[in-house]
Amino acid sequence: MNIYIDITESFGAIDYDNAGGIISYINIPPTENIQDKLQVEIFNFVLNLLDEPITSSIESQDLNFLENMDEDGFLIIKKATVTFEKIKGHEKLVRFLDQEEDYLLNEIYRPKLENKDKIYDIGGRSFTSPQLLINLAIISPQKVTLDFSASDHAYIATYHELRNVAETLNLQAKRTQPPIEGIFEVNYRNMHTISDFDAGYRVFKK
What we know:
Helix content is 16%, strand content 38%. Strand 8 (119-126) and strand 9 form a beta hairpin. It is an alpha+beta fold. Strands 1, 2, 3, 4, 5, 6, 7, 8, 9, 10 and 11 form an eleven-stranded mixed sheet that branches. A two-stranded antiparallel sheet has the order 12-13.
């Protein structure tokens, strides 16, 4: 079963920022109308059990899920979806992992910020290009939810144990950049396309 949690006022329960050495990944699936609904996938992160709204919501859906867990432990969610029901705008910052000051992309899509606008921060390594680090600032005036499969988690009781198993958890979640395919792959391009230099395009051949 899937567990759905309203995190509009408890978004900070999502800890993607290297808790105990855990490496998180983020994916932003394409969407037709980003303002009506934005969904972000996040992998391998800690869901803090300190917030009562989080634990209450989980217990109302699955009484046994939190059995033998407490707020001092670490609930690792292997894959989840964060849904913003409506957004006002967003900002995106993309960097290489070893960059601190420079960046590859800083994208701003929003009207002027107004007093009391809610800004939700989320990020991680890129799911499709893991050498990149993505940070999002999402301005959302409406409901934000988190959902994940009840079976897609690990619970670590102590910080010491988390440090010991972080490498294993990271290896399980590790993403590698897929090989180049299609027209940009050299062998495919040489075998299946012919360049028309005068016209300025390539022609596909079987």
